[in-house]
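Dear colleagues,

For the upcoming journal club I promised to circulate an example of a predicted protein-ligand complex. I picked one with S-adenosylmethionine because it came up in last month's discussion. The inputs are reproduced below in full, followed by the predicted structure.
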Amino acid sequence: MLRESDYMRLMTFVRSKYGINLENKQQLIENRLSNYVSERGFSDFTTFLDAVFNDKSGFEIANVINLLTTNHTYFMREQEHFRHLTDSFLPLAEKTVRDHDLRIWSAGCSYGNEPYNLAMCIDDYFGLRKRNWDCKILATDISINALMTAKEAVYKKEALAGLSQQWIDKYFVKLSDNMYQVCDKIRNEVVFRYHNLMEPITFKKKFDLILCRNVMIYFDPPTKEALCERFYNATEENGFLYIGHTEVMPAKTRYRKQCPAVYQKTASERTGGDEHE
Ligand SMILES: C[S@@+](CC[C@H](N)C(=O)[O-])C[C@H]1O[C@@H](n2cnc3c(N)ncnc32)[C@H](O)[C@@H]1O
């Protein structure tokens, strides 16, 4: 059984290090962790958590994070974003992005559906012109399990339900009646990395588009505000941020809202922002 004091110390740690708010989730944590605690040979949560917090290798906490994160995702989730991508973002990027080097970041990518879906849209949009573009997508998460599954790029048939048959034929390889793998051409467009969104963004170049969808939902308002400010500083002039449609952007953001769940770093805002940098 997960005692109140153990729940409190785990909750405090997970909130401060990963931003995830587990308030009122005592039962959920117990359900998600109890099998793992006994599999690891611990008789109770107290000794298990002592071991987690004393483990300097990071192995134990990585496993706990695998179990505590909610990784729900699917292809064509929030289709309006994919429509914005092909109707507005890519036509603008074609005119404005320097050196044909398009930089996109899927932050909180879970099992990879989101970044692969982006790569498919981009391939479909550019067609033969794609060979003139570098469109690598950075995809990050804190769940090592999710990242490993994402790299494999293997999905059950029912997971492809949101995609047209034409795209399934074009972008997947059928492994068996029920299993499909994203084709190499699309897999090669996505680079998966571990990145904790609570930490500074140190990627060398800024991004033309950042997607952080259905991730901040678990963060409290100050954490969300600080993260959006970091995103802003990591966004190119005229670049975009997509957030989940059920999420609320912090009131103090420097991004300009363009349509629901789509925000832009406009040139005028950037000038103002740079004065403070
Ligand atoms: C519900 S999934 C959303 C996946 C995808 N963006 C979508 O909308 O379908 C949320 C993901 O955010 C990740 N996440 C949660 N906290 C994070 C953090 N501090 N840094 C990076 N990723 C985080 C979780 O591991 C999980 O895979």
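Two points we might discuss: The first strand starts at residue 104 and ends at 107. Residues 79-96 form the longest helix (18 residues).

See you all on Thursday,
B. R.
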